[in-house]
Amino acid sequence: MSNSIPITKKGYEAIKAEHRKLMTEDRPAIQRAIAEARAHGDLKENAEYHAAKERQSFIEGRIQELNAKLPIFQVIVPSDSRGGTVVFGARVTLENLETGEELTYTIVGPDEADMKRLQISVQSPIAKALIGKQVGDVVSVVIPRGNIEVEIIKVSFE
User: Which of 75, 93, 104, 137 satisfies CB 3.0 to 4.6 Å to 154 for a cystine?
Assistant: First the structure.
C-alpha cells in the first residue's frame, strides 16, 4: 500500500484514544457550550459563542483528519532481530563527534514525532541518514546549522 503512513503501536493507540475522546467527549461538550452561549442572546457580541464555534471548528477538523488517516496507518512493530541496525521504531543513541554530547532519539511515524520527547519522524533528515546504519557507524547528518558527524553508539527497541 503506497499511501500508507508508518506508525508505532504505541502511537497508533494514542491517536485512536485521541479520536475516541474527540468523538465521545469533546464534540458533545462543545455542542453543549454552543447551545448555552446561544441562549445568552445577541450572537454578534457574544465572545463565548465565538470562542466555542472556533473550538468546534478545530475539533471537527481534527476528527476529519483522523478519520482520513486511521484507515491508512500501518502499524510497524520493530524487533531486536535486526541486531544493531537502525530501522523504524529503533531507539538510537548518538554521540556528536565534535562536542562529545550524547543524544537518544526514537524513530517514529510523522504523526507521532515530538522533539520534546526526542521522537523524530522517519521522514526527517536525521532519521533518513541513520536508517540502515549500524552501531559503530559514523554518519554525516545535515541539520539547519550545517553538517554534524555522529557515531551510532547504541540501537535498542522498546
Answer: 93
Q: Is the domain 80-156 a CATH 1.10.260.30 member?
A: no
Break the chain into its structural domains and give their ranges: 5-75, 80-156
CA torsion, ordered 62, 7, 113, 158, to nearest 10 deg:
140
Given a cut of 70, whether residue 48 has pLDDT beyond it is yes
- Side chain identity, residue 139: V
Rounded Cα gap, residues 65 and 62, in angstroms? 5
Q: Which residues contact 106 (CB under 8 A, 6 or more apart)?
A: 89, 90, 91, 92, 117, 118, 119, 120, 158
If you average pLDDT over residues 40-51, what whole number do you get?
Answer: 81
Whole-number Å distance between alpha carbons of 109 and 7: 5
**What's the CATH number for 5-75?**
1.10.287.180
Distance CA 34, CA 28 (A): 10
At 85, list the grid cell.
541496525
